[in-house]
Each structure stands twice: as structure tokens, then as C-alpha cells.
């Protein structure tokens, strides 16, 4: 299946670029109580798995694609935590989550150096 969709011209980064808006919109609609979120969030998850699988199977893994996927995932998770807080969720949970997401993101992007000694 993966090789077939790759031969059709579907590239992993295209899937990522579709998955990110699905995830962001799905999270927004979730907090608005819209049932469409029940379609968009699972679609986001499936597409998020599919892009990496397609890249690995077809040998089209790229640093750009890896960063795009990583940052997209962090954007969706961060939006969830922000909207969770805005909608009356636990502040400590939201702030801690955002700090952890920020730290992991900065480290992965090489903006924070991990000490190994």
C-alpha cells in the first residue's frame, strides 16, 4: 500500500502537511464540542503514523520531513494544553506540559545542548 501511494506521487511531507491542520482543527473543535473532532483527531493520528512509515519504506526519510513532523506534533500537543487551560483545566498540568514540550522541542532542534558528563 505504501509503495503504491508513493508511486502515485504522494510524498511523506505532503501527508504531514495535511495531518497538521487536521490535528490543529480537531483540537479546536474538540473544545467547542463539535463531533467533527471525533473524525479529525483520529485522522491526524493515522496520517502522523503514515507519513513516517511511508518515508522509511520508500527510503525518502529527510531531515526536513523529520523536523516538520516533530514540530507539527508539538504544535498540536501545545494547542491542546493551551485550550485545556483556557477551558478551565488544571493550570499546573497545562504549564508543566507546555514547559516539557518546549524543552524537548528546543533540545531536538539543537537549541539546548544536553550535558553528558
Give a verbal description of the structure.
It contains five helices and no strands. It is mostly helical. It has a single domain, classed as Four Helix Bundle (Hemerythrin (Met), subunit A). It is flat, with a radius of gyration of 16 Å. The model has no long low-confidence stretch (mean pLDDT 87).
Note the topology:
Layout: H1 2-7, H2 12-31, H3 37-58, H4 63-86, H5 91-108
The main β sheet shows up as: none
Spans of at least 5 consecutive residues whose pLDDT stays below 50 are none
Under CATH, the homologous superfamily reads CDP-alcohol phosphotransferase transmembrane (TM) domain
User: Helix coverage percent of residues?
Assistant: over 70%
Question: Nutshell version of this structure?
Answer:
The chain has helices at 2-7, 12-31, 37-58, 63-86, 91-108.
List keywords for this structure.
5 helices, single chain, Four Helix Bundle (Hemerythrin (Met), subunit A), mainly alpha, 117 residues
Amino acid at each position: 500500500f505504501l509503495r503504491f501511494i508513493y508511486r502515485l506521487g504522494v510524498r511523506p511531507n505532503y501527508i504531514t502537511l495535511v495531518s497538521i491542520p487536521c490535528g490543529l482543527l480537531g483540537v479546536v473543535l474538540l473544545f467547542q464540542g463539535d463531533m467533527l473532532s471525533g473524525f479529525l483527531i483520529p485522522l491526524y493520528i493515522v496520517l502522523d503514523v503514515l507519513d513516517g512509515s511511508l518515508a522509511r519504506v520508500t527510503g525518502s526519510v529527510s531531515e526536513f520531513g523529520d523536523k516538520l513532523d516533530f514540530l507539527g506534533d508539538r504544535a498540536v500537543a501545545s494547542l491542546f494544553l493551551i485550550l485545556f487551560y483556557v477551558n478551565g483545566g488544571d493550570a499546573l498540568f497545562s504549564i508543566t506540559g507546555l514547559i516539557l514540550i518546549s524543552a524537548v522541542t528546543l533540545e531536538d532542534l539543537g537549541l539546548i545542548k544536553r550535558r553528558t558528563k
